[in-house]
Amino acid sequence: QVQLVESGGGLVQAGGSLKLSCAASGRTFSTNNMGWFRQAPGKAREFVAGITKTGGSTDYADSVKGRFTISRDNAKNTVYLQMNSLKPEDTAVYYCAADPFTMRGRYRYWGQGTQVTVSS
Fold first, then answer.
1. Could you tell me where the beta strands, DSSP code E, fall in the chain?
2. What tens-digit pLDDT sequence spans the chain (120 residues)?
3. Pair 72, 24: CB distance under 8 Å
């Protein structure tokens, strides 16, 4: 069982930056791939970024490539999402997720989400 708690969301102007954090409980953090997803009002939840267990490989949605960076610190049981050059269309609830196998597919464990609002 992995419990995930996101933080770092908030209101930012277009062009600004935010860094999301996701703290995981338990001693199994390093055995899970980690992902960030987002869901905007009226839209389906979508994949944003993923990182493998050791952090050796990352994957990004085309819409955030070059602007967002996912990273992890296994010693701190934490995964991060650095978001730069934010756009109003990045406004959504951001969720982190953990799964031992997938990067873009169905994740087993989910956090409660943190709101990111980008004003124009």
1. 4-7, 10-13, 18-24, 33-39, 46-51, 58-60, 68-73, 78-83, 92-99, 109-110, 114-119
2. 899 999 999 999 999 999 999 999 977 899 999 999 999 999 999 999 999 999 999 999 999 999 999 999 999 999 999 999 999 999 999 999 999 999 888 999 999 999 999 999
3. no
